[in-house]
Amino acid sequence: MASNTHAISLNPATGEQIGAYAFESAADLETVLSQSAKAYTNWRRTPLDARSAALARLGQALRADIDRLAGMITAEMGKPITQARGEITKCAGLCDWYAEHGPAMLASEPTQIENDKARIEYRPLGPILAVMPWNFPIWQVIRSVVPALLAGNTYILKHAPNVMGSAYLLREAFGRADFPQGVFEVVNVQNDLVSQAIADDRIAAITLTGSVRAGSAIGSQAGFALKKCVLELGGSDAFIVLADADLDEAIRAAVVGRFQNTGQVCAAAKRFIVEDSVADAFTEGVVAGTKALVIGDPTDPSTYIGPMARYDLRDELDAQVQRTLSEGAKLLVGGHKIDGPGNYYQPTVLADIVPGMTSFREEIFGPVASIIRASDARNALELANNSQFGLTASVFTKDLAAAQQIAADLEVGGVFINGYSASDVRVGFGGVKKSGFGRELSHFGVREFCNAQTVWFDRK
After folding, report:
1. Which helix (H) or strand (E) holds 56?
2. In this predicted structure, which of 20-29, 111-120, 177-186, 224-233 has the lowest mean pLDDT?
3. Parallel/antiparallel/unpaired status of strands 269-275 and 414-417
4. Rounded to whole angstroms, how far apart are CA atoms 376 and 365?
5. Average pLDDT of 431-442?
6. Which residues are bridge partners to 185 per DSSP?
7. Do 229 and 108 sit in the same domain of this protein?
8. Are 346 and 312 part of one and the same domain?
């Protein structure tokens, strides 16, 4: 959250203030823009193997400081500590992977021009402005910044106000990894100065992970400035369970896929679309799994469900649940705020959801599962595609040929057959429709902020 003068960090488990970070001025922003632009002229010419080595050092720095980084994530946004430590481990692994495999993604690419006289060279664009969210305070940044830096760009992070402590710890990690000044910068500014930065000629491109509303605002400003942008926005991912699915596995994946990070994940199972013949058994299993989740102190390693990151987000979630119930849905478990300190919400399962209801139509960003019945596989596909979002989807069935056909017809950026949605550095990640555009991770993440330059020799 934020005041008029400071970004305020509140512990979502207790409500206590743990940090207040003064917003920076236009003069401060100018200093950062100048440093980033100056650093770019040298960083882009730094040998690729030296840039890769710096990324490997960053991975080591993250591992060495896992206790502080994970502890800050848990304190600032309530992620259970076991999951927070997993986030840092995953970030370090991404650094290792790009250090090893990334340089090949930037190699000269041959063309079909005769005698190898034309090639494609991948050149950096310049300073990148990144507007990042609070739900994965380190991972969202690392998966964006590492490929951008590998390509020779510099990077300016504008993080969410409630996780500025995480942003500054990450900046320390870059310092310990001996990155030159200006290659990775952090700015703590309000929206008017974000707009000013987007319009500044020194910013080459923009990347944002956040809500549809934020994406529309940032994307329109980037478009007006004629700058490349990558938008990773909301999702209401379908989790399709066909009649021949392994129900035990589907139930296990449903509970983990919906309730990890207290349900605060863009690419996560949210709409469970289940064939009629197995819907009762699936629902019973999901309800039992939901009731078994351990809710409590996020610093306790046994906790799986912590508090939601902000009280206003909990209020918004509860309003969505109550609207859905008033529209005719059935409440099977949960459905209310938990009394006492902290932003806790009961893990919730809603049934009898149909198109048009709030939890079918809107993104539900919290620990709430919505179960929808489908008459058959074709109907399940229609229900899945009946959404403004298109981030990821899951399909559970033993018929892999049928699953592949469904995947081909799903209007999403990623499909997981017999598994729940996830991100992995080795494959691209991103969405379609109002879930955004552009791709992160794999070679896509490296090349998103590159100039694919054609170099042609001796053309007569």
Report:
1. helix 48-64
2. 111-120
3. unpaired
4. 28
5. 98
6. 156
7. yes
8. yes
Residue of 13, 176, 29 whose CA lies nearest to 84? 13
What stretch of H or E contains 280? helix 276-291
Question: In whole angstroms, what is the distance from residue 354 CA to residue 356 CA?
Answer: 6
Residues 287 and 153 in one domain: no
Range of the domain at 22: 6-233+435-456
Q: Which position among 232, 275, 362, 363 bears the catalytic label? A: 232
Check if 95 is active-site: no
- Is 316 designated active site? no
Q: Which of 332, 209, 343, 336 is nearest to 272 (CA)?
A: 332
Q: Report, in angstroms and rounded to the nearest whole number, the Rg of the chain calculated over CA atoms.
A: 23
Residue 68: count of CB within 10 angstroms of its CB = 15
Which position among 266, 363, 440, 450 bears the catalytic label? Answer: 266
Domain of 357, CATH number, reads 3.40.309.10
In this structure, the chain runs to a length of 460
Q: Are residues 128 and 252 in the same domain?
A: no
pLDDT(3) > 80: no
CA 261 to chain CA mean position, Å: 12
User: pLDDT-derived band of residue 446, with 50, 70 and 90 as boundaries?
Assistant: very high
C-beta of residue 382 within 8 angstroms of C-beta of residue 355: no
